[in-house]
Amino acid sequence: MAKRRSAAKATLGAGIVFMLFGLVFFAISLGLVMETKKFAETAQETTAVIYDVETRRVRRNKKYRTEYDVYVQYQANGSTYKAELNGGNGSMDVGETITVYYDPENPLDVRKSKSAGMQSFAMIFSLVFVAAGVGIGIVPAVKSSKRKKLRETGEQGTAMIVSVDLDRSVRINKRHPYKAQCEFTDPVTGEKYLYSSESMMEDIRYLQGQLVTVYYNPDDRSQYYVDLDSVDENVMGGGPAVHDFR
Fold first, then answer.
1. Is 225 exposed, middle or buried (CB count within 10 Å of its CB: 0-12, 13-18, 19+)?
2. Which of 10, 82, 205, 218 is the most buried (most CB within 10 A)?
3. Average pLDDT of 16-26?
């Protein structure tokens, strides 16, 4: 039987990438926060004069932006130092007097602030990527895996695919996947149950009207799995053959 690619499989890779990127970014941000807090514990305050501001154009994400290198002169440990200011920006002008902080063990480490505000924000922002990765990749994959386990533990029945709809709650590569809507009639009670398949990346509209195997938990019919791979192979290639002898 042919294997179809579910939306859960399609998004799993993207979810893992998002999650790993977020975790790496979180680790880097956490390291910067800890380093800044260590700096703040011993940092000394002093007054500095801006003696030079260099500008340069850099290209990032296909766009050009201006970056600034700000250089200051200041007194530290009884001596005069000149160094590039960590945290300098385009609002600073040559000749301006500002308050800075330096590491007494390394006076050339001079910063505009001893706060870890930006690093903390970056750390929190990285968690958004982790959450997105879990939401779009890991959670759907886990749910899909749990449903498929019903093939081993659940009861089996045959349902009819009554329609195939676009799953508009999901959009992958600028298109919506498809979901098969099924109707299952309990052969003992005559009760009908309506089930939906997993979202599938391929166009499965040709499966409408076909019989499909459904696995379900007899103690909780809301737990089920529609096995689209069980559909008769004569429709796998895009629908049953049509012999027109007119």
1. buried
2. 10
3. 86
